[in-house]
Specification:
Largest sheet: 10 strands, mixed
GO molecular function, one term: 3-isopropylmalate dehydrogenase activity
Subunit structure: Homodimer.
Helix content: 40-55%
Order of helices and strands: EHEHHEHEHEEEHEHEHEHEEHHEEH
Pfam families: Iso_dh (PF00180)
Family: Belongs to the isocitrate and isopropylmalate dehydrogenases family. LeuB type 1 subfamily.
Bound molecules: 3-isopropylmalic acid, manganese (II) ion
CATH topology of one domain: Isopropylmalate Dehydrogenase
Number of strands: 14
Shape: globular
CATH architecture of one domain: 3-Layer(aba) Sandwich
Strand content: 15-25%
Strand order of the largest sheet: 2-1-3-12-11-4-5-10-8-9
Subcellular location: Cytoplasm
Distance between the termini: 27 Å
CATH superfamily of one domain: Isopropylmalate Dehydrogenase
């Protein structure tokens, strides 16, 4: 299979973990006879420095023509005092909107031998396996431009959704639940917000189309509590943009570290942008200690969702599992009796596993 992949390293540790993604994909290409070409472009703070804008036209153009996009992370203190339109985050929001990537899938599954790395009790997190389906191109993030009024003493942010924007993401939630354990939790704030009332109505209307899915509505504040007191009760959570942003960071504690969580941002036709849930971590940038697992697992999601390469995706996921099972971990995870490694070593271990795994498979199939 021949595919063109655009790499958007962005800022901070984004640059380091993108290198890991490239190494892993090169190994997959070699082992499975694919041809992946990589084309790197700027976004976020790096683009502001180089082009004076967080999302240059050339970047949008390249992403539009690519088969898939991998993004590291954006942001950093250097640009914190910039005006809103010149903040690195604008680049990320802009590319999500430009490619119409409305469905953000964030799977959260604890790795068995890392359960004790979570600050939560092992018996609470054990067995948790959920998927957050976050709406990504609407809501407060994209209201009529935020403004300051009254000499800067009052502010306005607008939360708006059209029926069709809600319908398409709710459909994604139902479909994901059908493919998993059949439980959809719709998270809203319908006791206060009009947008949530419409959201809840639409979920109720859609129920009939998905008779095999059980549906529950949970208010976002209660959902935040349940996520850490009883996470195993969840299968698929579908929710609007800001709630999904907050809940996915919260859910990351189930896995011991935000450095473990991948995400896929998809358009209707399967075009996608894949990025770790974590940010640019400026405090550890350039030190070679960042956890590349979230980025590497994001490449597995890319192979699965955009290229339909399930076997290849599975090899990457197995590689990560096996390296973690062997006790290797980066500094973000507190693992008793573990073996602390840096970004490069962790990546190499995963790459080596991919190569050895495939070689042994080939030997076995040749032999029998
Ligand atoms: C995320 C990030 C972004 C978001 C920021 C960097 C704009 O936190 O992908 O979760 O809020 O969506
Ligand atoms: Mn976030």
């Amino acid at each position: 299979m021949k595919k063109r992949i655009v790499l958007l390293p962005g800022d901070g540790i984004g640059k380091e973990v993108i290198d890991s993604a490239k190494d892993v994909l090169s190994a997959i290409a070699e082992e499975f006879n694919h041809s992946f070409s990589f084309d790197t472009h700027e976004i976020g703070g790096a683009a502001i420095d180089q082009y004076g804008t967080p999302l240059p036209e050339t970047t949008v153009e390249a992403c539009t023509q690519a088969d898939a996009v991998l993004l590291g992370a954006v942001g950093g203190p250097k640009w914190d005092n910039n005006p809103s339109h010149l903040r690195p985050e604008r680049g990320l929001l802009g590319i999500r909107k430009a490619l119409d990537l409305y469905a953000n899938l964030r799977p959260i599954k604890g790795f068995k031998n890392l359960l004790h790395a979570s600050p939560l009790k092992e018996e609470v997190v054990s067995g948790s396996d959920l998927l957050i389906v976050r709406e990504l191109t609407g809501g407060l993030y994209f209201g009529t431009p935020s403004e300051r009024r009254d000499n800067g003493n009052a502010v306005v942010d607008t939360l708006s959704y059209s029926r069709s924007e809600i319908e398409r993401i709710v459909d994604k939630g139902f479909q994901a639940a059908q493919q998993r354990r059949g439980l959809l939790t719709s998270v809203d704030k319908a006791n206060v917000l009009e947008s949530s009332k419409l959201w809840r109505e639409i979920v109720e209307e859609k129920k009939a189309q998905y008779p095999d899915v059980a549906v529950e509505h949970v208010l976002v504040d209660a959902a935040a509590m349940k996520l850490i007191t009883n996470p195993t009760q969840f299968d698929v959570i579908v929710t609007e943009n800001l709630f999904g942003d907050i809940l996915s960071d919260e859910a990351s504690v189930l896995t011991g570290s935000l450095g473990m969580l991948p995400s896929a941002s998809l358009r209707e036709d399967g075009v996608g942008l894949y990025e770790p849930v974590h940010g640019s971590a400026p405090d550890i940038a350039g030190k070679g200690v960042a956890n590349p697992v979230a980025m590497i697992l994001s490449t597995a999601l890319m192979l699965r969702y955009s290229f339909k390469l399930d076997d290849e995706a599975k090899v990457i996921e197995d590689a990560v599992q096996s390296v973690l099972d062997a006790g290797f971990h980066t500094a973000d995870l507190q693992v008793a009796d573990g073996r602390l490694v840096g970004t490069f070593e962790m990546t190499k271990l995963i790459v080596d596993y991919i190569k050895s795994q495939n070689a042994s498979k080939c030997i076995a199939s040749c032999y029998f």
